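STRUCTURE:
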């Protein structure tokens, strides 16, 4: 027998009940049926990727799932209300209802090694028609407003734990405030332009997202390990990783200044008119970061990661563009991942001769 306290909630659709239940108990009591398996089902097909992400997240010392799992209770469910408690008998694996919202949360938790640690808030809705179940599902999932990634990364500044997200955010903020930086007042912090930011072409979210993957292969795992005071793994393929592990964020910042100051000075006409080209927009920025490790490895080979090294790289790249009569505009490089990869490959190929006479 499961006994759980409840609160009755009244809204135009009718009465429903807010309660809680152990994740392991809930998993035994509900069905999750995707629409592809039944014409009367309303759930989307499950995403193994999403379930695995949630299972990994459950290892976080502060893992939390405050949003309730919503359940449509079957008419023949043997549930009684007694003294402000639900009483649900456990017998013959009988299911009490189907999940309307929260299937990935529930399946991810149950797949994790920490499932016994979680109680979950639940909403029990009785006597719903198929139409009402579909309506509840569609309203929940169509009216949500996606949170800006710029805001999400900005909130990492409040964390007391070290993480790639926090380091990347702080570097973005430093570059946006440093008057010697080519990004001075040109990053849209929190994802939107502020006053006197007419030349801002990159959002904080875009800048941070792609910098993070120069620091780590798995930012969420790093954050969880940091919170558990566990050692973060080395990643030899990421040269900036060593500086991150050694708490040398100032070195990462200096290298980024060298990279983008040299880019600015190699292509001054593009830097002065960032709205008219792709070099200082997402396409160019992502291409530069995709080519970064190759530029770093070349500089490391010659024991030179200064401004002059990156200037040599970009000068060679510029010569190639001029020879091929290519311009860094959307006409030649439309804004998409394919063109970002194309541009980064051009940079990587041309810098191989950066230490030859130009």
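SEQUENCE:
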């Amino acid at each position: 027998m499961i006994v759980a306290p409840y609160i009755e909630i009244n809204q135009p659709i009718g009465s429903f009940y807010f309660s809680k239940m152990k994740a392991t108990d809930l998993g035994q009591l509900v069905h999750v049926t995707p629409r592809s398996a039944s014409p009367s089902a309303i759930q989307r097909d499950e995403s193994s990727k999403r379930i695995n992400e949630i299972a990994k997240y459950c290892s976080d010392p502060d893992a939390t799932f405050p949003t309730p799992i919503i359940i449509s209770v079957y008419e023949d469910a043997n549930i009684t209300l007694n003294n402000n408690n639900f009483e649900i008998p456990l017998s013959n694996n009988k299911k009490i209802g189907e999940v309307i919202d929260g299937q990935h949360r529930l399946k991810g938790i149950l797949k994790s090694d920490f499932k016994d640690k979680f109680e979950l808030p639940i909403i029990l809705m009785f006597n719903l028609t198929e139409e009402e179940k579909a309506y509840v599902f569609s309203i929940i999932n169509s009216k949500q407003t996606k949170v800006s990634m710029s805001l999400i990364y900005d909130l990492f500044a409040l964390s007391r734990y070290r993480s790639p997200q926090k380091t990347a955010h702080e570097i973005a903020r430093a570059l946006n405030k440093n008057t010697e930086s080519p990004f001075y007042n040109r990053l849209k912090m929190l994802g939107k332009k502020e006053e006197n930011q007419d030349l801002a072409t990159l959002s904080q979210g875009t800048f941070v997202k792609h910098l993070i993957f120069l620091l780590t292969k798995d930012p969420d795992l790093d954050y969880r390990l940091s919170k558990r005071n566990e050692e973060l793994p080395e990643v030899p393929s990421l040269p900036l990783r060593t500086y991150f592990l050694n708490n040398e964020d100032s070195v990462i910042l200096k290298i980024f200044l060298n990279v983008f100051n040299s880019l600015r000075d190699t292509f001054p006409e593009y830097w002065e008119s960032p709205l008219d080209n792709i070099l200082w927009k997402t396409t160019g920025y992502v291409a530069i970061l995709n080519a970064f490790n190759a530029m770093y490895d070349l500089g490391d080979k010659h024991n030179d990661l200064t401004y002059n090294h990156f200037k040599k790289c970009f000068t060679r790249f510029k010569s190639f563009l001029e020879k091929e009569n290519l311009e860094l505009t959307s006409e030649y490089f439309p804004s998409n991942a394919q063109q970002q990869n194309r541009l980064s490959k051009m940079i990587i190929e041309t810098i191989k001769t950066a230490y030859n006479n130009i």
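REMARK: The chain has a mean pLDDT of 90.
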